Each structure stands twice: as structure tokens, then as C-alpha cells.
């Protein structure tokens, strides 16, 4: 049996498919989960969500900057999204964002997705450091990043506005050596 770098014990990272639009639209209606991932947007129609997902499914993915679905390994059910951004090839650094729907919290999906993504970026794409910004009100994500071995590197005070309040953003980082020591 062959193995995939994109499949872990409980999750698989995969490209978006046109039929993912319904789950994605339901996910977008979970305001707390959306705020924890980035920012709340006005509601989209089913037609807009369907069109956007179909277009995203057709896009050619860049080797370094991309967005993937986090799906359960067994049922291939969409539970969230993970993406890379802030790609700095000269310095060998990148950032990522992750968002998992509330019904799927505390099941290990986010942690496993991050470990899979970092393995690809460090060992296939030769990046040397990953960064993640976490909002100060997202206690679960703060705890998860610490548990995964990320180092808190800084704080941007009152730089994120959500739900009527200003919040800090905490920067976490992990080097390829730190990853290898823990996960290789």
C-alpha cells in the first residue's frame, strides 16, 4: 500500500472540490470560528459559495503558497482549512493560517494538519522557519501551538479588532530543527 505525505492518522489535506461548497458555507456561518481564523464577512449566497468553490477547485496550486481542505481521513468530511502565506523564499520563512469548524474542535484535527503541512514545507520545499499569528482571545489555539512546540516570539498589541474589542496578536515560530527534533 502506498502512503501519502498529505494523510495522517485522522486527517487528510486535500485540494478543494466543487462539492465542498455546502460545508464551506455552513462553516462561514459559524461566526466564532471565522473570527478565530481571520475576520467575519457578510453572508454569501449559496450561488456565490458554489461558484467560488468551483473556481478554487479549478485553480492550479502554487508549490509554496496554497490553501487546502482539512478533511477527516475516514469519511473525507471537510472540517476546516489550512493555508500558507507570507512566503519569503530568500529567507526561507513562511506563515500559515488554520481554521477548524466548531463541531470539530478538540479532536486533534488542527494539530495533525499543522504537523503534516510543516513536514511538507520543511522537508519538501526547504523552508527553515514557520510562523503563525494567533489572536489573544483564542485560548485553544494558543495552547495548541505551545503544545506543538512553537516558541512565542512576539506580540502586536491591540492590532486585531473583532466582536467589538481590540485584541493582541501573538507571533509563534518553529524552525526546521525544532520540528525535526520533535516530529522526525
Automatic annotation (TrEMBL):
<keyword id="KW-0012">Acyltransferase</keyword>
<dbReference type="InterPro" id="IPR016181">
    <property type="entry name" value="Acyl_CoA_acyltransferase"/>
</dbReference>
<keyword id="KW-0808">Transferase</keyword>
<dbReference type="GO" id="GO:0016746">
    <property type="term" value="F:acyltransferase activity"/>
</dbReference>
<dbReference type="Pfam" id="PF13302">
    <property type="entry name" value="Acetyltransf_3"/>
</dbReference>
<feature type="domain" description="N-acetyltransferase">
    <location>
        <begin position="11"/>
        <end position="177"/>
    </location>
</feature>
<dbReference type="InterPro" id="IPR000182">
    <property type="entry name" value="GNAT_dom"/>
</dbReference>
<protein>
    <submittedName>
        <fullName>GNAT family N-acetyltransferase</fullName>
        <ecNumber>2.3.-.-</ecNumber>
    </submittedName>
</protein>
Amino acid at each position: 500500500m502506498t502512503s501519502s505525505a498529505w494523510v495522517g492518522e485522522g486527517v487528510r489535506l486535500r485540494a478543494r472540490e466543487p462539492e465542498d461548497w455546502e460545508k464551506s458555507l455552513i462553516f462561514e456561518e459559524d461566526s466564532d470560528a471565522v473570527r478565530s481564523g481571520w475576520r467575519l464577512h457578510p453572508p454569501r449566497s449559496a450561488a456565490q459559495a458554489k461558484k467560488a468553490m468551483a473556481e478554487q477547485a479549478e485553480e492550479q496550486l502554487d508549490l509554496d503558497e496554497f490553501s487546502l481542505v482539512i478533511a477527516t481521513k475516514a469519511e473525507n468530511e471537510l472540517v476546516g482549512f489550512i493555508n500558507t502565506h507570507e512566503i519569503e523564499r530568500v529567507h526561507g520563512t513562511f506563515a500559515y493560517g488554520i481554521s477548524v469548524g466548531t463541531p470539530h474542535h478538540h479532536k486533534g484535527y488542527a494539530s495533525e494538519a499543522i504537523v503534516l503541512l510543516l513536514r511538507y514545507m520543511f522537508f519538501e520545499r526547504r523552508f527553515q522557519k514557520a510562523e503563525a499569528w494567533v489572536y489573544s482571545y483564542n485560548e485553544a489555539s494558543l495552547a495548541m501551538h505551545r503544545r506543538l512546540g512553537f516558541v512565542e516570539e512576539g506580540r502586536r498589541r491591540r492590532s486585531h479588532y473583532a466582536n467589538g474589542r481590540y485584541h493582541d496578536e501573538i507571533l509563534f515560530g518553529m524552525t526546521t530543527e525544532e520540528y525535526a527534533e520533535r516530529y522526525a
